[in-house]
């Protein structure tokens, strides 16, 4: 049975874990019918000429997707590589591509944002995709972030006590 995973890549440790999980699942499929769609969304601003980091972000996205794609080619795992440049909100673009490619599951990394970051750029991408995607969503956390948060909480407790 053919199964399609869409792996959302953003260069984070959590998205790398999502990719590794999908690769392992595809390797277990002896028939090689499991397909991976590697997706990296590169957000464009309305004033592209003012975005000095856009070109760098795009180059990093392309290099990252190409690296994973070469691994999949060597392993003979069917896949598609997509680096999408868009003015759309990445959250909406992920939903759109999941529907367009009729994926069976979206794999995405989770970044725990501070309250201030949530106010500035909105809710977490993974939260949005989980709530609005028509297919199942598997979320991967970067546990190193959790360790750091735990250590900071412990320091705060010791200072106040």
From TrEMBL:
Organism listed in the record: Cavenderia fasciculata (Slime mold)
PANTHER family: ADENINE NUCLEOTIDE ALPHA HYDROLASES-LIKE SUPERFAMILY PROTEIN, USPA DOMAIN-CONTAINING PROTEIN
UspA domain boundaries: 6-141
Annotated protein name in UniProt: UspA domain-containing protein
Segments crossing the lipid bilayer: none
Lineage top rank: taxon: Eukaryota
């Amino acid at each position: 049975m053919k199964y399609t995973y869409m792996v959302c890549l953003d260069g984070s440790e959590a998205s790398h874990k999502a990719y590794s999980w999908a690769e392992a699942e595809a390797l277990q499929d002896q028939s090689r019918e499991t397909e991976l769609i590697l997706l990296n969304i590169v957000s464009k601003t309305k004033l592209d000429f003012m975005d000095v980091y856009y070109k760098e972000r795009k180059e990093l996205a392309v290099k990252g997707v190409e690296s994973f794609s070469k691994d999949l080619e060597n392993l003979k795992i069917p896949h598609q590589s997509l680096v999408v440049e868009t003015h759309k909100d990445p959250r909406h673009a992920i939903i759109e591509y999941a529907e367009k490619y009729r994926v069976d599951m979206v794999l995405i990394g989770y970044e725990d944002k501070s309250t201030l970051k949530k106010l500035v750029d909105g809710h977490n991408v993974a939260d949005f995709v989980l709530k609005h995607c028509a297919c199942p969503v598997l979320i991967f956390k970067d546990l190193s972030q959790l360790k750091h948060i735990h250590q900071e909480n412990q320091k705060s407790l010791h200072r106040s006590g």
